[in-house]
Amino acid sequence: MAIQSERTTSPKLIMGNPAPSLEVKTLDGGVWNLAEQPTNKYTMIVFYRGLHCPICQEYILQVEHKLDAFKELGVEVIAISGDQLEQAQQFKATTNIEHLMIGYGLTLDDMHRWGLYISKGHFESEPAIFSEPATFIIKPDGRLYYANIGTHPFARPDLDLLLRGLDYIIHKNYPFRGTEWD
User: Fold this and answer.
1) Residue pair 56/153 in contact by the 8 Å Cβ criterion
2) Which of 173, 168, 166 is closest to 77 using CA atoms?
3) Cα 65-165-95 angle, rounded to 5 deg
4) CATH number of the CATH domain containing 56
5) For the chain, how many structural domains are there in total?
6) pTM, to two decimals
7) Which of 26, 117, 162, 168 can bridge 132 by disulfide, Cβ–Cβ 3.0-4.6 Å?
8) pLDDT tens for residues 78-101?
9) Three-class secondary structure of residue 120 per DSSP
10) How far apart are CA 136 and CA 114, in angstroms?
C-alpha cells in the first residue's frame, strides 16, 4: 500500500537561478534586503527555527565564532528566523551574539518562497508555525549557489567544512552543482 501525502512542500529552488527576494528587519534597527547586498561578496543566509530551539542557539553561536573566517573569504552572513522582535532580542541575549546580523519576522510567504520546511508547534514553548533550519549561499551576482534545507533541528552544515569548501569554490570558480535533471 502506497502512502501519499495530501500536501506538497514549496518548489525546489534551482542553483544558478536568481535567489528569491527577501527582506527582513534586523536587530540593529535596520532592514536587510538581499537585493541590496554588495555585488562583490557572497551572501550566506542561515535560517533558524527561533528562540525556542536550543540546537539553533548552539549553531548560531558557532556561526558567530566563525564570522571572521567567512568575512575573510568575502562572505557576508545573516541569521534569520520567524521570531518577532522580542524573541529575536532574547535569542541574541541568550546566545551572547555580538557581531552576527540577526534578522527577524520571516513570514510564511518567505518560508514558502525559499522552499523551507515548515512545522507546526507541538509544545508550549514552540510558536504556532516556524521554519526548519536551512543554509543558502548566494553568489555576488544574486544567483543561488548552495542550499542545505533541513526538516529537523538535528543536522546542519559543518561550518569548518563549509568554510574549506567556500575557500576552494571562490578561488577556483567552481561551477554550480545540482542543476541537472532528466
Assistant:
1) yes
2) 166
3) 20
4) 3.40.30.10
5) 1
6) 0.93
7) 117
8) 999 999 999 999 999 999 999 999
9) strand
10) 9
